Amino acid sequence: MLVHPQFDPIAFSLGPLSVRWYGLMYLAGFILFVVLGRAHARRRPELGWNAQAIDDLLLYGVIGVILGGRLGEVLFFQPAYYLAHPGEILAVWKGGMSFHGGFLGVLVAMWWYGRRHGKGFWQVTDFIAPLVPTGLAAGRIGNFINGELWGRPVAGELPWAMVFPWVDAAPRHPSQLYQAAGEGLLLFAILWFYAASPRPLRAVSAVFLVGYGSLRFAAEFFRTPDPGIFGTLALGLSTAQWLCLPMVLAGAALLADTRRTRTL
């Protein structure tokens, strides 16, 4: 049995400025987006992306993920808390970002990018889909360092079960690390290799939807559910699991429809 190291959430301070690990994880995710984006553009030059376009994509994506992620957390998962503490809404450096809200924010941002730069929505999302999971992995590591979003108590013996002392003395699943490995590294590997070859328009986006939705759905069985607006819903599923189901269904429908689409 392990005990959470209870990291100091502040990585370092520069005078009055405190730099938090959570923020550094987001920065790492953004850097990986650019590095992997340029590598992806080099291996698939026929897609028509260059370094400047990827930098522009990052700017749009940062705005979308921060605004959408925070609004999603406030509206979907902890509305009562933020209604009582409205000053905390802007404190994104302390953690509390909803993937589903960030996902919607990024979709809007990518639509706006495509509109302004003459690219189709699916051209944009197919290109960025393989670049997103490493950022998700970095964010989950930030959750682990912050000691938030801990897992459910373990039934039986599990060598890597972890106690989160500020919660209780029960050994729990380190679900943040499960998610970093699943919806982060595993999903990245799947998408990176899938997108290496020409695919029908929307296919890479579809695989992302199915892959993320399925992996997050499974991970929720090991994670203490977020309270959500409605808490645990029908069939004992969490708010996040119900939000994942439309992703999986939409991805499956898109993938089936790509049979009629030209390959890119």
From TrEMBL:
Primary location recorded for the protein, binned into one broad class: membrane
Record NCBIfam families: lgt
Location relative to the cell: Cell membrane
EC number of the protein: 2.5.1.145
Protein name per UniProt: Phosphatidylglycerol--prolipoprotein diacylglyceryl transferase
InterPro entries per the UniProt record, alphabetical: Lgt (IPR001640)
UniProt pathway annotation: Protein modification; lipoprotein biosynthesis (diacylglyceryl transfer)
